Automatic annotation (TrEMBL):
<feature type="domain" description="Putative E3 ubiquitin-protein ligase LIN ARM-like">
    <location>
        <begin position="579"/>
        <end position="933"/>
    </location>
</feature>
<dbReference type="Pfam" id="PF23568">
    <property type="entry name" value="ARM_LIN"/>
</dbReference>
<feature type="repeat" description="WD">
    <location>
        <begin position="972"/>
        <end position="994"/>
    </location>
</feature>
<dbReference type="Pfam" id="PF23628">
    <property type="entry name" value="ARM_LIN_C"/>
</dbReference>
<dbReference type="InterPro" id="IPR015943">
    <property type="entry name" value="WD40/YVTN_repeat-like_dom_sf"/>
</dbReference>
<dbReference type="InterPro" id="IPR036322">
    <property type="entry name" value="WD40_repeat_dom_sf"/>
</dbReference>
<dbReference type="Pfam" id="PF00400">
    <property type="entry name" value="WD40"/>
</dbReference>
<feature type="repeat" description="WD">
    <location>
        <begin position="997"/>
        <end position="1030"/>
    </location>
</feature>
<keyword id="KW-0853">WD repeat</keyword>
<feature type="domain" description="Putative E3 ubiquitin-protein ligase LIN ARM repeats">
    <location>
        <begin position="418"/>
        <end position="577"/>
    </location>
</feature>
<dbReference type="InterPro" id="IPR016024">
    <property type="entry name" value="ARM-type_fold"/>
</dbReference>
<dbReference type="Pfam" id="PF23654">
    <property type="entry name" value="ARM_LIN_2nd"/>
</dbReference>
<dbReference type="InterPro" id="IPR011989">
    <property type="entry name" value="ARM-like"/>
</dbReference>
<dbReference type="InterPro" id="IPR056514">
    <property type="entry name" value="ARM_LIN_2nd"/>
</dbReference>
<dbReference type="InterPro" id="IPR001680">
    <property type="entry name" value="WD40_rpt"/>
</dbReference>
<dbReference type="InterPro" id="IPR056512">
    <property type="entry name" value="LIN_N"/>
</dbReference>
<protein>
    <submittedName>
        <fullName>Putative E3 ubiquitin-protein ligase LIN-1</fullName>
    </submittedName>
</protein>
Amino acid sequence: MASASSSSLSSTTHSHLDNRLDLDSILSIVSLVNRHIQCFLSNHAARKFLRLKCNSSLTISNHGCFEFSQHSVLSNLYWGMENIELAIQSNCQEERNSRLTKSEKMLQIPAFIEEDGSTAGIENRYIVCCSYFYLSLVRKLRRDEWQMTMYFLQSVLVFPQLVRKELAPGLWRRLFGSLVTIRDTEEAVDEAAKQQGRRYKDWLMYYQVVSYGETPPWIKGCSVADNCMREAQNQQYTNFASRKCFNSLEQVPTWASFQMGKESPEKILSTDADLSASNTGERNYLPGYSSPQCPESYALDSPSYSMNVEICKANANCLLSSRSHSSLNDLRFSMLDLRDVETCTFSYCSVEDGTPPRSSPPHDLRCFSNFSSKFKRKYRISEAVPQGSFARKINFSNSGKDRSDESSSYRKDNHTDLLERFEKAFSTLCFSEGPGKCEDDDLEVATIGEILNTKKKVKYSSVKQEILDQLLDIISTSKKERVIRASVSMLLLLISEDKAVIEDIKKKDLHLNYLASALKRNVQEAAVLIYLLNPSPTEIKGLELLPALVEVACNSNGQESLSLPITPTSASIAMIEVLVTAFDYVTNSMHLGAISSPKILSKLVNVAMNKNLEEGVALAAILVRCMRLNGNCKKFLSQVTPVDPFLYLLRRNERHAKYVALEYFHEILRMPRSSAIHLLHQIRQHGSISIMHMLMACIQQAELKYRLLAANLLVQLDMLEHSSGKSVLREEAIEILLESVASEENCSTQTLAAFILSNLGGTYSWTGEPYTAAWLIKRAGLTSVHHRNMIQNVDWFDPCLQDTERNAWSAKTAKGVIKFGRSIFNALARGIQSKIKSVSHDCLICIAWLGSEMAVMGPSSLRYYACEILLREITHFLHPGSELDERILACLCVYNYTSGKGKQKLMNFSEGLRESLRRLSGYTWMAEELLKVTDYFLPTKPRVSCVHTQILEVGHVGSGAATALIFYKGQLCAGYSDGSIKVWDIKGQRTMLVWEVKDHKRPVTCFTLFEPGDSLLSGSSDKTVRVWKMLQRKLECVEVIEMKDPIQKVESSGDKILVITQSRGLKVCHESRSIQTTCKKKHVKCLTVVQGKVYLGCTDSSIQEVDIMADHKTEIRPPTKSWRMQNKPINSILVYKGWVYCAGAVVEGSSIKEWRKRCQPQISIAMERGTNVQAMSVVEDFIYLNCSSSPSIIQIWLRGLQKKAGRLAAGSKITSLLTANDIIFCGSENGLIKGWIPL
């Protein structure tokens, strides 16, 4: 096989050299294209005609939609063409250069799009072809005829038909007309032109590369005087050239643009590479130009001119003496000739005495020592090429020669040998086509490696820059993946030899773009190179690498890697970690969403099995972010992810590995308790007893945050087996938690410790939300759907709240914690006083949890001690103004800790505390029981404070009146007259608009909660009822129910939706969405639902009780009879604690039984004459009324005494009313929402 490979390589190379185009032919092609482009540019009418024709073809179709990025491509092409015309017409050289630079940048954007497909309805190949054609005009105007020809030939390769018919038909005939026969079809002609154009372009690039760094072949015939003039121009402009830079995001370098770094056509730089390198730090020469002109500063008779002539003569002698005089087929003008010339630089030439040139001093020299051996390891040269083959001809090892020999004869022979080998290697890489050439390519890559490995000392700085430029240009322009891969590998090996190469690459324009393009073409090694270049997070994001990085991370090709500090997989995972952690929440979430599918996660988990330290650390950080983003990710990972890779990180001595493992376990254990217990058993099983000792070591030695995470994991693992007995490990872990809760020195660790303690015995949802408080609130008896929806971040239908293992785990964990005795409650007493809201909240949860478990254990001195030190702080949470969940938890604490001996503490309750308990009695039975006890000890009549204070005012300009209010998922939803719904997050007196939708076409008139699906219903004047759900914390409409009339009120009863419209009767929408009408003879104004019964307030002042299930109707309040026949509608009806309240011209209230008996109402409040109640709300102590006579006022009436107690001014007409958590909210005509609480 090796022999065959060698023979194939040799035949390929020789065949290619036999069919080559000589330099004269290439120069003729360049000259032909140059003349045609010159004529075209000088013809204003031709330019205008072609530009208008292209512009008309670029018109975007009016049909369908297109993305902004597509418009950007066409816009860049249009303005790129326009800037060329403006540059031609400009008389100012500076403006001309600026226009050309802008044009080139713009044209490169459409030139780089995929040739297949379309953009905004226009074929991509048309756009790309036009872009390359106009780029050739730019290069002509910059006097870069060589690159001009390259661009023109590229336009032929993209779309030959367009060039043949529109862009350059005359030039096409001159170049390819000989290929056309009478019988050829257009397709055949275009294909022949493409093949010939590809041949021309390949040889153009070939001669450009092999002559890199020397006097360009197409200007060899210039006189010594010309050389002197160029030398003088170089000295004049070299300082300016060293300062120029290209745009790092848009400029795309080509072979010519690296060679011809000039700002204007007049700035012709010297061909003396060593002088240029010493002056400017880069190569400065021009591959082609017309007859140069001497600057005025160098007149022919001036001393400067004479001196430069002598200098140039000396340099020319050095140049000619070191070159062989073989034929053109020997390719004497190669890059390696420059290395011979460099030993005879201007710096060491003595013009006066003719002293022979000297070698460079040792401190300027550099050699590659291990380059070849690394290539051999990667490409297996010894296996691919046997002795006696082409390998011997190019002499891989060269072990028989003394590379340290500095004699001139050996140096010449050595460079001749390197020259031949480089040319053959580069030729094979550039021109080999078709499959089956991998071994040949590998061999040639190794050949170039051998060239770089020469033991002869070379001038490293010059050679290095040439190599980097060539490799980057191959990466940017080559269409062959294996050539790009080889170039990337060589760059990596250069970096392994010299870390300074990294900084050199960074200085190159668009280096990251080239490497990103290589990575997207599945050159996985490019990921390592990008990683080593250390781009900023913004740069990584801008390259749009995430899909390619995920592909590399999940599908490593498994090839033998070079001896590099990091693998492509590790580099990809490290950059993915940056993309998901380094930006704002929205950007990070967007990146996480792209990698959170089960397919990708499962492959990332497989990578974790490699037990590579850096991969594991980065991967753990990524998985933690994924779990925080999406509960489904956590659920999936808990089922498929083994614990061994993360236990491996935990066992490592490196701190960052331990820390990320602790973060991972902390995050993944935030799941429903039964699943968490199962995972804890896996950790204990795979980690054995050693895992406990490792966690104890972390508790003793790690940073405080990770000491807490280790303590959390250790306590839970210890609870699996030592729940009742004494455990030293558990005691030390809990002790560090208690110390952190009690200490206020570090806010973050105090917050974390309180969070861990509060959820040790509780549970979580799959989203990671702690559900311990929700579970305790459920125990306290909060059952109303409306009340539960005042609490945030809880899905009351989540199965974790019905977890069967939760209660047993809670009891077992509580016993383990309570063994600490008084110290646990002392720490919690200090924590609950914290000024940090989350700390005091979590301590309250922990106190409620321990209290509920201690209540089951029976009376104890410890519980009484806890009551003494905690009760005062707990009662602060009972008052209105606290969050409802905190008020319920505080009530639960008071109930559990004051049982038995602690009841005496209730005697010390103030009137304010009794009032708070009374107001809570409508939410939980525990408050009602406590109220009975306090009334027993203190039989005095309780006072009622009528003073209210405003705590809230939110508004949104431009949405109209706030016409409907309701709490849903703990957030205030407001409907507006413009049809929008806004979701407000309320924390105390702070509010924030978190979501806004506008699906209704007309004003939103009402809201209600719908238990099936835990949904929200909205009614509108647009004759629709919409069903909303909170999905991923966003309010989304999931269903639309069409009605025939505008909606006035909407309610629900089980799976039925009850709707009041402007027409007669009550519309009942069943689960099948069939609509039934009941009470057809009544004009229904309002309704309320309680215990399956519907109470309707009608315009004739009657109240109807309707049993929907039995389809039974009862009139419990007859219509008012009056000789005046006045219309006295019931505008509001509601139920509170078994009483039905109605309001119209009068406010009445009685128990449901009394209403059915048609007895006189137990409460009756008459309004002033001509006044009707528009809206009403009832709480424990008060009835709030909004009347027609004072539409901007809320009247406060004492519920028990039917006495007016005060008023609240809204400032404008009130359009909606709501009471929740003892807060009275009102929406007004100007869009403001205000809230008050009683003191």
